[in-house]
Structure formats: C-alpha cells, structure tokens
Amino acid sequence: MPPILSISALNKQYDSGLKALDNVDLAIERGEIFALLGPNGAGKTTLISIVCGTARKTSGRITVDGLDTTEHFRATRGRIGLVPQEIAVDIFATVWNTVNFSRGLFGCPPDAAYIEALLRDLSLWDRRDSRIQTLSGGMKRRVMIAKALSHEPDLLFLDEPTAGVDVNLRRDRWALVRKLRGKGVTIILTTHYIEEAEEMADRVGVIDGGKILLVEDKTALMRRFGKRRLTLTLTHPMARLPDGLRDWPLVLEDEGRRLVYTFDADDVRMPGLLRRLGDLGVGFSDLETSRSSLEDIFVELVERAA
Length: 306
Prior knowledge:
Elements lengths: L4 E9 L5 E10 L4 E5 L6 H9 L6 E6 L2 E2 L4 H5 L2 E4 L11 H11 L6 H10 L15 H13 L5 E5 L7 H16 L3 E5 L3 H7 L2 E6 L2 E7 H8 L1 E8 L15 E4 L4 E7 L5 H11 L3 E8 L2 H12 L1
Parallel strand pairs: 3-8, 3-9, 6-7, 7-8
Antiparallel strand pairs: 1-2, 1-4, 4-5, 9-10, 11-13, 11-14, 12-13
Helix pairs in contact: 3-5
C-alpha cells in the first residue's frame, strides 16, 4: 500500500533568497504517528503549510493518498486536517456552530451525530452552546482540534499541539492522539517537547536548515544513537584510575567520588567491568544506570549538521 503522504524533491525559496526547504523527501505511512522535530526556523511549519495548501512551493511534488496536491487540490485538501499553532476562531460564535460550519466548508453534508461524538470525545459537549470568547485557552485549542476533525480527514497535522499547556492537559492530548490513531487517522506532529515525540511517535524525522537530517523508527533511532551510562558511587574516592582500568572508557567525576562508564546500547561488557572492579578491590556503595533521551539524540544530530 502506498504512503498516505509522499513528498519528493520539495523546495521553497523566498524572493529574498532564503531557502526554507531544501530538496525534502518524506513518506508518511498510513496509520502512523510521525514526529517532525527541529529547532525554530528549521522549516517545520513551512513544510506543513505547503502540504496543506496555505503556502506555495517553489518546486517538487506532493501526493496525498496517491493524488497530486496541485492537480487535485480540493480532493487532497479534504483528506487533511490542520491544527495550527495559533488559535484562529470567531470568538463570538458558539462551539457547535464553529465546528459545524467548518465541516460545511469542506463540502461535507450535515451530520449532527458525528459532531456530537466529536465534541464528546474532546470534552466540549457541555460547552457546545458557549461562545468561544468564554472558553479557557485549553478549551479553545480543543475547539481547534474539533474544527480540524470536523470533515473526517485521513491525515491530521498538529503543529505544536501542546505548546503553552500544563502537564495534565498535555497528557490528555497525548491520549486523544492515540485514540485518533486507533480510529485510523494518520498523525504528523511538530513539537518542541522532545518527551512528546518519545512518548507517542512511531517514527521520528529531524529537520534543520530546511533539510531532512534523518527519518527513522523511534526504537531503532534510540538503539542506534542512544548511549547508556553506568554511574558507580565509590566507597573511597580515587585521585586517578588504577592501571588495571586503563583499557576501559571510564571517567572520574565529583572529585573522584563517582566512576562513570558510557557505552552503546548493544555493549555487553558491563558485567566484565564489575568483575574487574571486584578483582582490583574497588568498592562502591551505589550503582545507577541511565540512557540517552530522544532530546540528547536530537541535540547531537543538530550539532553534527551545524
């Protein structure tokens, strides 16, 4: 089955000469949650805007469900939902009218049962007759999500979906995203919260300077680039490493109170290190292991590309 979204050799250059996107190739599989990561100005929002038809490309080709977005603009746009960073709604309209009107804009017939189910899913049903201006910021953002889903799209873009919300609301959004994926919606999200991508995404793409640096399965990415760290709190501080440990990549920290071993995820030598320490009479009172986060990997990739 072909990807639901295919982007080939996509370029965007402004009259000023700034190249916002540089020969971007990307394929999004049906039913996945894809996280697009990148620093400010990397090209994330530009890419989304071009796919959704709110900005023009300089060159390249985009297909949605096999249809070219230039040749079949209305048909492809109708398959896409977009939740932008900015809250853009008529503050004097009611929740129900806002979402129902958005459905009509895409030429969909009225479906009160679907709109009701959608508002219930987003915990907006009790506020369906409220004017937008009376809602909290979190509720307004949920209305934006309802608008994006009003025409039952197959592909949903979430541009910084949890920006400016607290941790509890963020986790509520994560649960909603998983529920949408369970219903068959393919989701692409951009985020500054790396833990958001680590928590939800099936695959991760990293973009910087308008170029895609990497696209990979999240688990494989963590395994390939991730590092593990073993920290031993020593019984007696060391001024320097014993000669018997010179062949190990070890570092003394905290004025010799801690011994740190950093290793790849597939490294199996840690038991050997512990045996060596025992043979040398090096005692420790505590042992702690940790691994690289997706944020660590992201920072490393962007620094490499700089």
